[in-house]
């Protein structure tokens, strides 16, 4: 299960990102601007990171400590931000309702479209850092000190 679960999560992420952005051709969604090779590269690398990050978060959830009582899922913000940045970076700029609402169609093509590769790089960095930190905690663990004077 430990080997297959990250692959299943990555496959689910690939479908959840690839179908609405029409990187996987389908009849449900239509893309108004053509895809580029960078979209597929960013999508593939992001999905390769999303699978292990989410699988580690599910299989080995972060333990609560006294100092982090108001932070239930440490690192989950980075994972969510990386996933959303990946979605925005591979998506069609004028198909994204939020971008068109904020910038208009001209602004989406003029300002947002050139930023998409940088969003993809930021996504990959966030997901990579999150994966590194989760693996580091699993490998080293949290040191537990025992006080011999406690009764």
Annotation keywords:
elongated; mainly alpha; 0% strand; 151 residues
Overview of the structural elements:
This protein has helices at residues 4-18, 37-59, 76-90, 97-140. The chain is mainly alpha-helical and 151 residues long. The termini are far apart. The mean pLDDT is 84.
Order of helices and strands: HHHH
* Uncertain segments: none
Computed Rg: 19 Å
The CA-CA distance between the termini, in Å, is: 42 Å
Helix content: 55-70%
Strand content: under 5%
Characterize the main sheet. Answer: none
How many E strands?
0
What are the SSEs and their pairings?
Elements: H1 4-18, H2 37-59, H3 76-90, H4 97-140
Helix pairs in contact: 1-2, 2-3, 2-4, 3-4
Short recap of the structure:
Helix content is 64%, strand content 0%. It has helices at residues 4-18, 37-59, 76-90, 97-140. It is elongated.
């Amino acid at each position: 299960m430990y080997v297959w679960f990250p692959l299943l999560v990555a496959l689910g992420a690939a479908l959840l990102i690839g179908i609405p952005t029409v990187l996987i051709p389908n009849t449900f969604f239509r893309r108004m601007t053509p895809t580029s090779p960078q979209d597929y590269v960013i999508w593939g690398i992001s999905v390769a990171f999303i699978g292990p990050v989410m699988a580690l978060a599910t299989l080995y959830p972060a333990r609560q400590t006294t100092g982090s009582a108001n932070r239930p899922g440490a690192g989950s913000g980075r994972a969510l931000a990386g996933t959303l940045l990946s979605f925005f970076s591979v998506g069609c700029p004028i198909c994204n309702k939020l971008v068109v609402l904020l910038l208009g169609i001209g602004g989406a093509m003029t300002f947002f479209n050139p930023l998409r590769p940088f969003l993809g790089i930021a996504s990959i960095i966030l997901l990579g850092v999150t994966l590194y930190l989760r693996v580091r905690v699993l490998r080293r663990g949290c040191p537990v000190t025992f006080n011999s004077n406690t009764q």
